[in-house]
Amino acid sequence: MKLLEVIEKISEEIIKNKDYLTELDREIGDGDHGVNLARGFEKVKEELSNMQNMKPFEIFNKMAMILISNVGGASGALYGTALMKGASYLKTKEIITPEVIAETWNEMIKGIEMRGKAVLGEKTMLDTQIPAYEAFKIQADAGANIKECFESAELKAKSGMESTKDIVATKGRASYLGERSIGHLDPGSVSSYLIIKTINNELKG
Amino acid sequence: MVIVSHSKKLAHEIIELCNEMKKYDFPVVNGSGTTGDHLGSDPMIIKEAIENAYSEDGVLIFGDIGSSILNSEMAIEFLDEEYNRAKIKIADAPIVEGTLIAMAINDGKTSLEDILEELKDLKNFNKV
Q1: Measured between CB atoms, which of A36, A116, A173 is closest to B40?
Q2: What is the ipTM of this complex?
Q3: Do A80 and B42 touch (CB under 8 A)?
Q4: What counts of helices (H) and strands (E) characterise chain B?
């Protein structure tokens, strides 16, 4: 897997879904998730050519800084923190195995939990990411290859994302709506799903 | 003090309004907005605001909603070691009322801890 190619596809997917994510956010938030993330990933795309000779952890750190200073909303801080946490683990590893990816992802999730002061089941991107990571980890521990791991992860990411419809928001702007947030997908859970889906699609080839 | 709103204009007006209560000359810095002209907050802008407001007495940050707080936390983590992070606090208070009270009671003798203590009363503050 070529990391930069996957990042390019992720950027394109987020940009393509700008209006959809914004629409979801307009229903229960401040309507800027798509616009904000797309602006960040436009910048990531622009900077890809400068990342050619970087190590994976350097790419993660670079992406983190781009997202943090260009997104402008909570999602920039959350994805940025995740990438920085992932980078500090990746820095210690020379070879990328499914186990290393699992542990990197685990660190990223811890970063999101810390920054967002959120846990599973609060209608956030964690509801996509935690089940997906757990499915990935089970496969990795069983000796599966990266492709198989992400295939399982995507399935759980999708059901995780869908589960946010039934949850009352207690985090972020949607928490102001309380019960009224039921019936709506969490935009962050959708952007996280799009990212995982894109990685899986790229691996399938 | 540092004021972090999603809207730079809003923070500007809050500072203007609260200046009326100011007891002595200390820096109140607008750490709001983004590098573009869209609404939001940016840890790098907040970091710079903290640096400009910093003194040995500490810095108190007021944020409006959501990412203002997340990005303020991140800004504190990005500060160099010359800044004593323990002296930089994010107020758990409404941005307008909190800023107003902090400006009013900060007379140069009040400590950061005293102000934070006073701000706790805002939790049960009745307007009508």
Answers
A1: A36
A2: 0.82
A3: no
A4: 5, 4
Tokens matching residue A204:
């399938």
Instruction: Please tell me the distance from the alpha carbon of residue B111 to that of residue B124, in angstroms, as a whole number.
Output: 22
> Which chain A residues have a beta carbon less than 8 Å from that of B39?
32, 72
Tell me if residue B6 falls in helix, strand or coil. coil
Residues of B in contact with A172 (CB under 8 A): 66
pTM score, whole prediction: 0.91
- Specify the CATH number for the domain of residue B69: 3.40.50.510
DSSP string, chain A: --HHHHHHHHHHHHHHTHHHHHHHHHHHS-S-HHHHHHHHHHHHHHHGGGGTT--HHHHHHHHHHHHHHHH-SHHHHHHHHHHHHHHHHHTT-SS--HHHHHHHHHHHHHHHHHHHT--TTSSSTHHHHHHHHHHHHHHHHTT--HHHHHHHHHHHHHHHHHHGGGSPP-SSGGGGGGGGGTTS--HHHHHHHHHHHHHHHHHH-
Domain that holds residue B26: 2-124
Going residue by residue through chain B, which has 128 residues, state the pLDDT in tens, using 9 for 90 and above. 999 999 999 999 999 999 989 989 999 999 999 888 788 899 999 999 999 999 999 999 999 987 899 999 999 999 999 999 999 999 999 999 999 999 999 998 999 999 999 999 888 888 88
* Interchain CB distance below 8 Å, A77 and B36: no
Task: Give the closest-approach CA distance of A74 to chain B in angstroms.
Answer: 4
Q: Identify residue A60 by its one-letter amino acid code.
A: F
Domains (ranges, CATH) in chain A?
3-204 (1.25.40.340)
